[in-house]
Amino acid sequence: MLEGITHDAGRLGFQLEPSQHEAAQRLAAFGAAVTARRRARQQRTPRSIYLHGPVGRGKTWLMDSFHDRLRARKRRIHFHDFFRKLHTGTHRSGSADGTAIQHSVDVLLADIDVLFFDEFHVHDVGDGMFIARLLRTAAQRRIPLVVTSNYAPDDLLPNPLWHDHFVPTIEAIKEMMEIVEINGPADFRRFPSAGSKPGDAPTAFSSGRIITPGTPKQLGRLGLFRPSLSQSRVLTPTTQPIVVKNADPDLLWVGFPELCAGLTSTADFLTLAHSFKTWVIDDVPSPAGGDPASAPAWQRFSNAVDVLHDQDITLFLIGAGPLDWDAEPSGGVLPVDLARIASRLSLLGRSDNDDALAIEEAAGS
After folding, report:
1. How far apart are CA 175 and CA 169, in angstroms?
2. Which InterPro entries does the entry mention (predicted)?
3. Are 333 and 300 in contact (CB under 8 A)?
4. Residue 140, Cα to own-chain centre: how many angstroms?
């Protein structure tokens, strides 16, 4: 298993740095225990693995390389997809009580030996309750997990108003999981030219662009044309109506206020991502604006970027500018997981003005 993961890295042109190699060793040992358990029908459950560290250090890549080589009944799920399926199950049952939630968890854990859970994070006390139910049920059924997260267990649910409520679950995580930190020096999403990137960026997502100030000339060079008022539509992906500027068979054009400033949820973004493979979000405000009232909108924007990156959707962001998520924000309005979002948005190209785009086009011709 370790040789296989190392081979996968070499095939992509990089070597595992020390913390990645240590994580690969832990995963290989875990895989050997899972295989031995299946063959001998032993009751002892291999200890789960919790991979955490800064953004872009190859956690998901390592997990996926291991997942592809593990010979066991397995299921891989992303954090947002987990909650979409959870809420879909409770919606279909007509109830969000414990029975409906338990049924959704039962479906997720059915007929598997290992559950892989990518991008594990908790920012909401309600989500924390669902996570606690999942972990408790997995432990009862002797199903180990492999988890990736940008957060050490003690940093989950960082909101001081709710953190204490999640401490018992944090202690359970530390008890049932082997905590492995991946903390190499480079964010591989930001420095792909260094020759040591774990895997390729999502192809469609990384073909998108951040466009400022969004003049007709800029947009036209990219094949984008602002919709007319007559093209506006109202979509209801789940339960929340959203006014969009255009919804062609493959393209969704929506304003930041309509997408993020209302009551939309991650379930809405997931449903729309299944229908539209290119998104244009315009009227994006500057992250440095600092209006405290915008904090919930920025968190929804963060969730949308997560979904579009994970589903490999082409994304164009248009705003008057500056649209710089690396700049130091004022007022503390941006999401607590800003580093992950900034890393993902760094994959997008930039069109900062008409002259810059013209120079880029000339260089590529």
Report:
1. 10
2. ATPase_AFG1-like
3. no
4. 28
